[in-house]
Amino acid sequence: MRPEKSLPHSDEFLSADDYVEQLLRYVSSTPVFQILCGGVHIMDFYTSDPGLFYSVVPADWQAFLLDCTHMELLDFLLRDNVETAMDAAATRDGRVPPPASLLQYVRNVRRFSLQRNVLSRAATETMALPRKITMGMNAKKIHEVTHFSAYIDRLADTVSEDAPSMPITHLVDVGSGQNYLGRALASKSFIPTAAGPKKRRRGVVAVESKGHNIAGAKGLDMMTGVMAAPARPMRNKKLYQQMLSEKGNNVRQTGKARNRIARSSGEANEESSLQDADALETTDFAESAPANTPKIPPTMVADMRSRIEIAAEAYAQIQQKQRDGKGQASEMHPATELNNLIQYVEGRLENGDLAHVLSQVQPLQHEVGTTDGDVPCSFLTVSIHSCGNLSHHGLRALELNPAVRAVAIVGCCYNLLTERLGPPTYKVPGMRPRPTLQPINGRVMREEERRDPEGFPMSARFASYAPVTDAEIGIRFNITARMMACQAPANWTESESESFFTRHFYRAILQRIFLDRGVLQRVHIEGQADDEEGAAVSPIIIGSLRKACYASLSAYVRGAVAKITAQGNGDGAATLAENATVSAAVAEKMASLTDAELEDYNTRYGNARRRRELSAVWSLMAFSAGVVESAIVADRWQYLREQQVRGIVRDCWVESVFSYEQSPRNLVVVGIRA
To answer: Which residue ranges are recorded for the region named Disordered (predicted)?
Structure first.
């Protein structure tokens, strides 16, 4: 089960510890890497002259980068043989060869990026899931769930075999969403019993913060047969709708409808009067009547409400019991759910302490009168693409919860991580601090300044690393670097690249237009009032636009202005007053912008050379950010390694569980309790 290497690092490193040491030294002391991983922001690209490309890219790289198309550059960065790249360029007539310093940079980024395309033999032989279990999944999700569910089954079997007295009884999926993974695990996961070779299923505990996701997941559980569907109430839909129309008096009723309602009302009144007359005699009659006297069955009244109304009332009753302190674990889950394999727990995790979740887990009922009561619950915490700090919470569960025997977490959305050490200062030699990189965006600033103990980095080694140069203590990546770590440049096609390069190009030009027309002002730091290199332009967050807005620069600018005018700054942090100010400024300053002026901007910045400047820097950023993701993953492994030194963790490793082409965030971090 365990791979040969604890980390999937290059063979150039002697061990995982050697890799981590050299990685820390590289990311903390390499100016070019620090500039490209967090030191460049797309909105500042055209706000200075001659442009950001010439101020952040080393001078000896510029001619080669401008001589490459974007696909040629991606091949050079990711796929070409670096050792022979110089000779290959020399054979092309009139082409600029790559400089030696760029070749060395590419070589370093490649060797510090964890290997991603190595799937274990067991994973490649994974059996396909039944079609009904994949209901609602796209091709990418099917690939992820198929391989990861098989991996979790093998891991749970391994942990159970190593400790037969405490086999894994439940799989806790943190951030379950629509519970695609839990549904697959519940449909095929088995464990051996103490009685012999008989098999029984493991339970799945799905932890999700959004109630509508749980409701949707339960619906899919019933449709796929993993969970038993509740009994459906019988009702006369026509009569129910007519009664609603009578109450609202909105629909004109026909004579046929009135007769149907009258008959129903008359029958109900007659039944009601019979019940009133016999109410006092029911008990006496039951005791004194002869044995052969037929009993009068109770009157059954049909529930005329819709299923949505019935479910809403039931959910409200459960919530009220919980608020009153009367809802025990058995009351929080319907009886039909306890007899099934999946239990849902609604709640938001703020740390790795899962006590409030694990206390609600019910013993799994396999057969009538047979439960796991004699076997203590033992948990394997899993997550597939848990966003931001949720990955940290899942890993910390191994340290904070003795009942958790193992963890297996695949993370994603590194831009949602909080900062443990605060924002980086970017005191990079040859590059002055830039305000956009120490973000003035309200939400980002608050997240980075609060120094969240649950944030990045997790490990003490990354948090306290002291570089040899005069730099700040600890490893820090700002939101720009972490967002770029979510990219997958090896999967970019020519058409996809052209599409998002065009979007970035339009956004960079719009920022220049905002600056020229006085919508935004330059932000300076360190007293550099007249220095464009030490300044940035305050951002406006636009968000997504309709597809038609990307047809041309004119359509993009008009669409963005209309959106900002209607709703103001879209970052979700501005107050209503601030939004009104932004909307008014954009409406006033951009109203007189003509199509001729937009065409002039397109001519100045839209030529092939300027567009290539932007695509080259963006490609370098995405390529370099592979080291950022590797550092984040290595930090999580290092955290488990530190728990191993403390005697809490017996073993830990990182390996690839998906095909990178199908799912780029494919590294699972595994830890097993001692």
So the answer is: 248-276
